[in-house]
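JOB MANIFEST
job_type = single_chain_structure
chain_count = 1
residues = 278
[input]
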Amino acid sequence: MQAMQTAISVESSVESEQASGPHGLGFKGFPMRRFFGVDISVLRRDEAIEFCLHRLAWRKSTAIAFANANLLMHCRRDPTLSEQLRDMLVLNDGVGADLASWVLHGSAFPENLNGTDFLPALLTRLPEGTKVFLYGAEPQVAERAADILADRFPVEVCGWRHGYIADDGRVAAAIDKVGADVVLVALGNPRQERWVSENFADLAAPLVISVGAFLDFQSGRVSRAPGWMRRIRFEWVYRLLMEPNRLRRRYTVDVVQFLFAVGVERLHRKPSEVSYAK
């Protein structure tokens, strides 16, 4: 109940402080921390879930992204991506975002809101019969994930499209045709965030969420790390061991570049621009 009251009170603040953008969406009513031009909301999981449920219930269009170190580096290299994310509710994802938060803002985020754990919690709380559309991943992965999600959660998977087809607007049209309430976009970052930004205005679905490898995990194509590795924030090590060819650069060279970029950002910020949030 307290989380619901928090979400609703924040909702009122959000509506009165809308950020400017092509879709008129902004979430400046939330506490924010900025990284490479990206404003990440400072929320606990229950607060974020209650907010999503409230937006869904009132049919208020909301795009959601998860900012991990990889996405933040894409934003640093291409400021247009940061601009596209300003119309979305951006949540912190992973140890990289926490490290950057310690350096630039003096503390970690209240909770790790990685999509792999956040999304099952959200799907569990959705009203029974909520229509969910899946877009992305390999054909067999998307199909398998659709079957599993329909069995595991109180939702109706109303359609799916894999991510290996050229999109000329037909995907958005298919999503609207089946009356989806929630769209999970699994194209990998930054492709999925760009697709959401470019197609969001044409979608009637209230919740459109960039979900990364979520469908791979749900389908069983990629396994999760053991619980003890997740608890000590070492899931990235497990993923690197499982998919070395695909993830070697992301978790070696890119991590070093990310930490260097965070250090440079700290050095170039004026004292007044560095917050030390509790």
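[summary]
The CA atoms of residues 206 and 250 lie 32 Å apart.
The first strand starts at residue 32 and ends at 35.
exit_status = 0
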